[in-house]
Each structure stands twice: as C-alpha cells, then as structure tokens.
Amino acid sequence: xxxxxxLAGVEMDDTxxxxxxxxxxFVIGVGIVSLILYKIQGRQLETPVPDSxxxxxxxxxxxxxxxxxxxxxxxxxxKRKILCVKTRIRQARWESPPVRHADASPPLLLKxxxxxxxxxxxxxVLYTMKSIRVLGHFERPLFLALCQYVxxxxxxxxxxxxxxxxxxxxxxxxxxxxLELSITDPDGTRHYMKSVGPGDNVHSLxxxxxxxxxxxxxxxTVTAEAVEKSTLLRLxxxxxxxxxxxxxxxxVRTVQIIALRLQRVTFLALHHYLGLTIExxxxxxxxxxxxxxxxxxxPPLSRSKTHDDGADISAASSTPHKRAPSLRLCRSxxxxxQKSASSSGFWRSLDCELEQAHPTLSPEKxxxxxxxxxxxxxxxxxxxxxxxxxxxxxxGKGKNDLAxxxxxxxxxxxxxxxxxxxxxxxxxxARQGExxxxxxxxxxxxxxxxxxxxxxQDSRIFVTVxxxxxxxxxxxxxxxxxxxVRAFQDSSFLCLNRxxxxxxxxxxxxxxxxxxxxxxxxxxxxxxxxxxxxxxIGVEAGKELYSKGDPSDCTYITLNGRLRSVIIHPDxxxxxxxxxxxGQLIGMVEAxxxxxxxxxxxxxRDSELAKVPVGALSYIKRKYPQVVTRxxxxxxxxxxxxxxxxxxxxxxxxxLTSNLCTVCVLPCSNNVPLTAFTLELKHALDAxxxxxxxxxxxxxxxxxxxxxxxxxxxxxxxxxxxxxxxxRIVLYQTEFTLTPWTIRSIRxxxxxxxxxxxxxxxxxxxxxxxxxxxxxRALKQLVLLxxxxxxxxxxxxxxxxxxxxISGHFHIQAPKRVFMQRPxxxxxxxxxxxxxxxxNRHSDFSRLARTLTGNSIALVLGxxxxxxxxxxxxxxxxxxxxxxxxxxxxxxxxxxxxxxxAEHRNSKQTNDRTSKWAQMMSSxxxxxxxxxYPISSLLSGSAFNAILQDIFGEREIQxxxxxxxxxxxxxxxxxMRVHREGCLWxxxxxxxxxxxxxxxxxxxxxxxLLLDGCYVNNLPADVAHSFGARTVLAxxxxxxxxxxxxxxxxTLSGWxxxxxxxxxxxxxxxxPDMAELQSRLSYVSCVRQLEQVKLSGYCEYLSPxxxxxxxxxxxxxxxxxxxxxxxGKLIFTEWHRGDVIKKMLEDRSAPDFxxxxxxxxxxxxxxxxxxxxxxxxxxxANQKLIADRKMKENVPIINKIEPSELSTACExxxxxxxxxxxxxxxNCDGKSHWIEN
Length: 1237
Prior knowledge:
It is found in: Endoplasmic reticulum membrane. This protein is α+β, with helices and mostly antiparallel strands.
C-alpha cells in the first residue's frame, strides 16, 4: 500500500527524470540554507564577554566559580520546567482531556465487596436464610419461629451423619468442617457425589415434599459422612407442619417452589444438558407401601445388603403393599387393548369400559408413532340416548376416582369443572413446550408420554393408564409442558383447566399436596439421588461466583440472569472474557479437565443457577454412558465458538450484546420523554423479534398490587423469567425517582440505557448517583437524544467525564413525535397506530435496536491511497440498496472517508467533502511548500494537517453520529492502536502517516509515535467484529498479493534498469522500485490477518477493480468513484436476488430464544401465585369494579395476555361482563403489546 506517495504530489514512476533531479537539488539547497541560518542565529545568541570581566573571573577563587556554575544550572532547570508547562498548556488547547475507557473501570470488571450480614439475628437464622433457597420467601417472624426447632450437632471425622435405612426428614446446614456425600450401589460400592463445606446444606426437596404430604421415606442409597470435625445445624422437616398451621399460605408457596425447582433445575440439568429422558421418570407407577416405623437416627452396627435405588433396605420394608385409594387396577391380568380402527370399535370398547369401570392394561412396547396431522376429538352423538347415558356414567365414575386421587371428599366440587374427552389412537393431546395445559385424568385407554432431545428421535418416558393424572407439574408451576402426550389407543380422559383447578385449591388447599405427591411418585429413584447433589443457588448482582485459582469442583447452569467472566493478566490488567446469559454453561471445561479456575466470574444482575458437582457428573457418566456423547457435543460447540473468535486483543464491553434479554431504560432528568422513547425503541425492536415493555403500572395491573413484596419474590422472578423465554427483549422502564420498581429494573437488567437530552447540561441525575452508591455491574450505555432540526452532537466528552462508569454511548436523532408533550395514555394511543407500520431500518432507533440485539452491521474501509475514492462510490451503492450501516471504521484513506461518513451519514455530503479533499491534495504548490529537510520525512505535515482541519474542524470522535474507529501503528510500543475517542482530524492524520513522506504523529495522550495503520491492519474487519458487529462489510482497495517478478540474479544495477526502461527494443522486465517495495513491506504483517478475514463467517469481502489506478491519482477522483459505484451496484443487485440482504437483517444472534419458540407457545403465562389464591379475601364486587376501572383508565395492558387466573378464579357475573368488554378492545395485530381503553 503506497497511499502516502501522494503527499509528494508527484508520480515517481511516470514523471520525467529531470523533475525528480530538480526536486532533489531544491531539497538539498533548502537544507544548506537552513543550516547556514541556524549557525548564524546561534552565533548571535552567544553574548561576548568583555576582557575585563574575563580577567576578573580568572582571579576569582575556584570555590566561587563552582557556586556560579550551580546557580547557572538551576536557572537552566527552571527554564526547562517553564518550557514543559508551556508545552502542556499548548497540548491542552489542541486536545480535549482524555476520558477514561469503560473497559478499565473497576465497577465493570470487579466484584462487589462482601455484604455484611444483617445484625441482630441469631447465627442459626442467618445460616438458614442463606443456605436454603426454597425458604427464601419466608417472612422474618416465620423464620424465627422455624429456627426454634434447630438443633446443633457435632460430628467427629469418620462418623456418619445419616445412612441408608434412616428416616429422610431433616435439613443439615454445615457451620464448621466438611461432609462428604456418596451413593451406595447394590453391590456395596460407594460413589462420591459432592463435598459440603461451611454455609452449604444437605437436603432433598423431594424428601421435604414427601414429609409435607405425609409420605415419609427412609434414605435408600445416600450417605453423608464427616471428613473433618464438623458442627451442623439440623432442621427437622416436621417443624414445617407445626409452623404452617399458622401460615397456610407459606405451605402452599413452599410446595409450589419445590415443584418449580424440580422442573427448572433438576429436569433442566438432566434432560436439556445431559440428554437423559427415560431415566428421569418411572415407566409405571410403583404401588405405595404402608407407613413404616421410624428407625433410630443412629445407624445400626450391621445392616442388610442394599438393593437397587427403588428397593427397600430394611426388613420392615417387606410389609404388604397397599394400593392407592383411587387406583383399582388389576395389573396381573394378561389383557391387552388393541387399537380401534373405526368409530364403531371405539363405542364397543366404551361399552366394555362402562361395565368394568376400568380396563386392565398391559402396555406393549412400541416405537414412537407418527405424528398425526391434527388433533381430532370424538364428537358426542346427541341423538343416541343410550350412548349419552353411558357417557354420563363414565363421567361420573371418572369424577369419583379423580376426587379420591385429589383428596376431595365432596365430588360436587368437580361438577361443571371437568370435561370428558375421547380421542383416537395416535392423537397428540398436548405438545412439548405448550403453555396453559390443564390437568388430565385418564379414564380409559392409554396415554404415552414422549420427550424430545435435539438431534434425536422423541423417546417414550412413561405410560399413563386409567386412574392416573398427567400435567400436574405444569399446572403447579405455570411453566411450559416438558413432554408430549399422545394417545396410544382410543382413549377417554377428564380435563380440568387451570382456572377451575385454582378455584378448587382456594377452597381446599390440601388438594395441592395430593397433586404434588403424585408428581413425586412419578420421578425415578435416580432423580431422587441426584436431587441431593444438584443445588439451586442465587447470586446477587455484583457478587462473585468463583475466583481465578479456585478448585473446579462443579459446573453451573444459568437459569436466569447474567454473569461476566474476567481474566487477570500477569501485569495486573483486567479484561472481559465473556458474558453468560440464560441457559449457558459456566466452568464446564475446567471441571471436566480438573484444572483450577482460569478466570473470575461474578453476577452482572441478580441470577439463579443450577450447581452440578463434578462427583455427581462422574456418577451419572458411569451409570449412563450415553451422557458422555452429550458432553462431547457441548464441549465441541464451545471449542468451535472459541475458534471463531478473532485473535485480536481488543475486547470492548459494549460488544457483549449478543445474548441480552433485558434492558433497563433510565432517565437522566425529568425532561426526558421516557415513555415515548421506550415505545419508539420497542417499535424498532419489534422488527427484530417480539418485545415486551414492563412498567410498574403494568406489573400492578397484571400481577397485583403486592407483587413486588419480598414474600412474592420467587413467583415474580419466575414470571419475569417466563417473559424472557417468550420475548426477544424485555424493556424495563423505570420511574423518575428511586422507587422499588426502579431498583428492581436496575437489578434485573443485562444492559442499562441512560437517556439524556443532548442540548442539556451533563449533570448527574438522582438515579445516576445511585450507580455510584450501589454495586451495579450491568453494561451501561449513554443515549443522547437530539432533535431533527437541532445542531449536530457536541460536548459528548463532558457527558462522559461525569460518568466514568459508562461503557459506550449513542447519538439518537429522534423524530418530532418523541418530544411532543402528551398525557401518558395519549402517548400509548398514538404509538398503537405507529406500531402498525414497519419501522425505518435506517433510523437511529433501528440502529440502537440492532446493536442491543447483536445484529449490527459495520462498514470497514481499507487503505490504498487515491484508490480509496472507490469507497465513496460503494457507500452510494449501499444507500441505494437499502443496507443500513451501524458502525464505521477504517485505515488510512479508509479512516478519512469513514470519518466523513460517520459525521454526516449521507453519501452526497461524503462525496462533496472527499472531492474537496482530493482537489487540495492534487495541488503541487501546496506539496512543494511543505517540503523539509529529510531527516524523518520528506514533508513536515503542516499542509496535510491544514487540509484535514479544514475538512473536520475540531470535531471529536465522540461527537460523530455513528460509532467510529481508526487504526494506527504505534511504533513506540510496536503494537496496533484502535482510536475511538479524541480529536478526529488528528487520528485520521495518524492513520494516514505513511513513511517516509509524513512524520509520525505524536499522540498528545501518551506521547507515543503513531504511523499509518496499514503496517499492522489494512482492513480491520476483525476489530469491528470484536466491537459487536455481527456482519462486517469489508471493502479492500489495496494491492493484490499475486504479482510476477523477473529473476535478475544476486546483484542489481540501477543504471541497467534505467537503460532497460529507456531502450524501446529491450525486453521489458518487472522489478519493484523503492516505493513499491515499501508498499509491499507494509502488507507483510497484515496479509495473514487479511486472509483470515476473507474466510470468516461474519465478513462480506468486497474488492472493487481499482488496481489500474495509482495511489497518487487524486486528480481522477470521479473516475475512481464511478468504478466503485458500478461495482457496488452489480454486487448488491445480486445480493437482492439471493436474499443476502434479507438474511443480513434477520436476527441470528439468539438461537436459544428461537429454539424455545419451536414448541408453539403463543400465550403469555400468568403469574400463578397459589398462596395468594388460598389466602386472598375477595373485596365486594362493586368496590373491585371501581378499582379496576380506575386502573384501566391510566394503565396500559399487555396484549395477548389471557385474564389472570388470580382475578378470574372467583369473579362475579358483573365482573365477568366488565372483563369481556375490556377484552374486546385488545389489539390483535400481533405486533404491539400495548392497548388503550
């Protein structure tokens, strides 16, 4: 790349030799004259000493002479200091004060200090509150009452805390020492599961559920042994029964949280990540045994040999089995029901069912049947009275059995609430991932349950026969269905929807315990074993998960939240390695390789994780070897992801936006149009994926006035996590003051947008000061709003100086509708109409939306001298093709053109400014006047600086509309420099300082010498990708690497080459001149990087045919521009035909989100607080109507959300009429989630 040859204003390979010699003589003459003038000036500055003074000096003693010499040196030192001060003042005028980068800011890279424990509470209370997450919703009085039952126990090394055969009815919390948890095989082999240290606990939530439901079980295979002298806190689970008599709502909430943990933690870890399916459930339910006498807590000296996981241990377990009250099945009979091929066969089988109450069944082994095209239910023939009567009897018998199974004494509670359904064989009743599935009770036939794993065929996990329920877990938790239900044969079942189920629970809370017990009976003994090892932990925002060098004893699965990994370099520097969002694994490679932690990880926001110990993982691998294949798949995906990352050392915190789920919108002042901004951003985000806006009013309207209280923390977190599953981005709009909702929004956010007005003073707001007082580690971005008729951005440096915790900034030119003063409900009404139209992909809000979702498009312009005028033509073709640009970067001439485009965002103004610059550079007189004595360079650089100052003025890089960067070569540190802040013209000048024509630019920040960036990275597409760009349009106008040379031997004579060129009859040979050698030399260090960029998946490499132009052809601007424009039109037309541009604008940065949507879930799950249903006192109908009307007049309602079960469970006819009237106003276009009444 020889683009700096233009600075001499001559063509070195085309100009006559006379001109070259003349210029050389002129330079030599100027040098001689300068040297003579320097000598003359130096003599004039020397002051002659009179002879009398010289003689007097000679007579002075030597000591006096030394004193005068020291005084003279002091004067010289003072002069030097004054000169340094003058230089600094001069540099301060040239350059604005530096702004500290956010990636070096401790609040982003460091963990929060350890929080002090709450004073005034007993230590057992503190340990219990900290250790057992399922009890985290308890109020303080309940905790204090519960801790009265806590018992201190001391164990010596080697003593057993519990072992198989003892009653599993306590929770153990380690105060001091260490325990070892192990599993005992039937042959007596013990397998290490995990180590339990101080602050940790040992318990199984399934065992707690058994005790609460009255089905206490002994330990079967789990043993806990003290490996050190240990002090434990033991909390008997029986204490819950006594406490819950006074707090019935806590009982219901505890059961619900246990069910939630079972689905979201245990099943997620074992199924989604380890690929286990049939191993998680019992294929057929085991008949329950009679209650057993409680053995002593101390293990006997000798005990019988342990059997399989599901087998009983002691001799007492051999008592006769007792059937469940509602299960009247004769499983020993060898009777098989065949599939019916016709409707008549179904009715004949129905007659038999009615006579026998329940058919006996032996399920046959079968493969997964093919999925039917649709779900067809048998219609009931109203003309056939006999059949109607038989159906009524079948319904009655089914209700009686269901009532006994649910523990209902009054069967009439099921009247008008359950419905009888008949389906043909192979009918899909419910699919995996569906929302709103109710409770199903099989009356006749057989239902098979299947579970799918990515890349594998669905596996049948268990069979449901008459007398059994299905769908209990999803009804209890409100989570999507985790399996698919299909009829194996013609079947009949009762269906109880969620609303009716919640009505029954309100009047009879014990029903919840019966349903929860049926869930516990279905899980396999293997799940019960692993449940002791897998922990459900919560990490508060800013708290550390683990530090570098810690032992790798477990793997973490992110359930919800966001965590950041930071690596500490040997020199003490800290840099961000990555961020982990929902569903991602943390620390798995280190755990499997048994290496210490290589980096530190802390929570960006409040997060929930599943902790899987290495010992438990090893046990699972030995028990089910197929898990190894799944682990290899996960590791290979991680390795491939690491290989695709650029090798550069540049990692910007603002680039970690590929997996954002939640964004907090926070105002700097009360003048910010916060509601309009949020809705405008939502409009742009809807074009990428479904977006939800949440405010405090919406939360109150949707979840109730007490949803944000501490007792509802788990349910609220669960509901918010469900919104993350159903939406690509969730926007949390804060209030203008520091309210509980504002704090919740900040702690819930992956990224915080701080919104300010560009024409206001950059003073810190009330909410911003909160950042400095608390430990907020989320990514923080500054967004400055500008009016369309206002001035361009300026003074951004002042905003950033006041906010050193900002990671990046955006300038948004907002439309006039954003600044219009309207009431809140009028703003919502107006934007309902706006959301019906497509968003402008070229708007600044769309650019912000693409950046937040990790779908931004970057334009990278390479160096090449005058050939870079093709960049201007390519930009014009990009605009005509409708391709938006979100980031601009470049090297050399690319830095110049990119800076102009980032300032104006318009191809016409870019063309005008670049054309003006080309005319100035074509001036021979301007170049000759800039010649200097060639010690460091041929030119002084003053002429080139003046041209750039005329083009850019004193504009800062931070004031550009588009994010911009330029590349330079730092010869002081022998490294590449990326410039994203500072004076624009200076770093464009540095990026174009091609040696030997221009001298290096002295960076005013650190005095390093900067040269042309082409020496290290002529096409910095990898830098743009590291800054978060998903697609990079890289335009290369440099020289091609393939070229032919002539073998001239070991020596080369310049006179011979000159004669060869002048002689028309000699053979033409190709030997590079000094300028071409310099250009080729500049490509040596970056040719490998260029090849990697071409092969990368994120880069669209474009190379206009400009090789025939010289780097100094500045007078051929229009010709080179047209070449780039025609090339761009041809390329982008082909892209349109091949849907390249369409795919470029699609959201591909969140594959996990779209994988979750394949389940077909379209409804938004409700906030189902069963404890609220049990304990709520319903207000009078007229009072509730008045309150609802007041709320609906001022609060926007979320579209596509079914009426809450909480408000409709016991509504009156008047309330139902009012609600139906409100539902008619819903906007069902599928785009907007806001409605107005």
